[in-house]
Write a structure and sequence with these properties.
The chain has 322 residues and is α/β, with parallel strands linked by helices. The protein has helices at 4-7, 34-40, 58-71, 84-96, 111-119, 131-143, 155-161, 163-172, 187-199, 230-234, 245-259, 269-274, 297-302, 314-320; strands at residues 30-32, 43-48, 76-80, 99-105, 123-127, 148-149, 178-182, 205-211, 238-243, 284-289. The N and C termini lie far apart (45 Å).
């Protein structure tokens, strides 16, 4: 299987001297969502980015960022993270033989994501502050030259992430009518816009769901109060839809119960946003599902029914399962 960099080499900032650090990212499924399509009166397709190696869309950018860091002679990389960037950075740094340092806001990241980064060998530091404060500290260390920053402020990250848009154009034979996705820091939204612009086949309507309460939302992956790419996002033809946690979780349940796709709550924000915009009947809508549900297993467990105790008796089992 070709790496994402090999597949899109002519669209990425790499050359023959760039060592490719890959875990088989990209090429994620584009799944039809028949029940969501029926409810909304449009053709809904789900771009399942949770199928990437570390379980989120971050791997698309990380393969490029880590490859370029290795090419530049880096010995360590650093990121601030609400979880997914940390896991991706840890995985690709391990693959490259680099040291990874993760700064996460203390108490604000799911234990599953923290465990993933730790298990992959990253040095995880709990910052007594917000994500934005952690990112500021990471940027200072990167400016000192001791670490390479692999957050989405790294242009190589966004170059890798734009490949999702290029994939959609390949799969659909052109741009979809609408692309809906979550809005946390704004890097992925910017990357999709760049990818579609580069493809030159028309810019789809962009719909981005953000948490109305960015500081306290249950959708921890988009719990970012100061989006790093807000200025860029403001220039895009994008509709930003503020969402309550109830709306996000309703979409999360719909994806799980009616489409069979377990994602983390933040990944359902694009789907949730569609209920708040007018859609042309019959149009083709791609919802980007950014991360796997096991990234936030605590929320899945907390919001799902407890198992029912039952004796090993067929009649009792039949009654309990009715």
């Amino acid at each position: 299987m070709h790496s994402l960099i090999e597949r899109f080499r002519d669209r990425l900032p790499v050359d023959e001297a760039t060592p490719i650090v890959s875990l088989g990212e990209g090429g994620t499924p584009l799944l039809r969502a028949p029940r969501s399509s029926e409810r909304l009166g449009v053709e809904v397709l789900l771009k399942w980015e949770g199928a990437n190696p570390s379980g989120s869309f971050k791997d698309r950018g990380m393969t490029v960022a880590i490859s370029k860091a290795l090419e530049a002679g880096a010995r360590a990389v650093i990121c601030a993270s609400t979880g997914n960037t940390a896991a991706s950075a840890a995985a690709y740094a391990a693959r490259a033989g680099l040291r990874a340092v993760v700064l996460q806001p203390a108490g604000a990241v799911s234990t599953a994501k923290t465990a993933q980064a730790r298990a992959l060998g990253a040095r995880v530091l709990d910052v007594r502050g917000s994500f934005d404060e952690a990112l500021s500290a990471a940027r200072v260390l990167a400016e000192r030259g001791t670490h390479v920053l692999v957050n989405s402020l790294n242009d190589d990250r966004l170059e890798g992430q734009k490949t999702a848009a290029l994939e959609l154009v390949e799969e659909l034979g052109g741009a979809p009518d609408v692309v809906a996705l979550p809005y946390g820091g704004g890097g992925n939204l910017s990357a999709y816009a760049s990818g579609f612009a580069e493809a030159g086949l028309g810019m789809p309507r962009l719909v981005a769901g953000e948490a109305a309460d960015r500081a306290g939302t249950v959708a921890s992956a988009i719990r970012i109060t100061e989006p790093a790419h807000a200025t860029r996002v403001a220039t895009l033809p994008a509709e930003i839809v503020p969402l309550t946690d109830e709306a996000i979780l309703e979409a999360w349940r719909e994806l799980a119960h009616r489409e069979g796709l377990l994602c983390e709550p933040s990944s359902a924000a694009g789907v949730a946003a569609l209920a708040h915009v007018e859609l042309e009947p019959g149009s083709r809508v791609v919802c980007v599902i950014t991360g796997h549900g096991l990234k936030d297993s605590e929320t899945a467990e907390r919001l799902s029914p407890e198992p029912t105790p039952v004796d090993p008796d067929p009649d009792a089992i039949a009654e309990a399962s009715a």
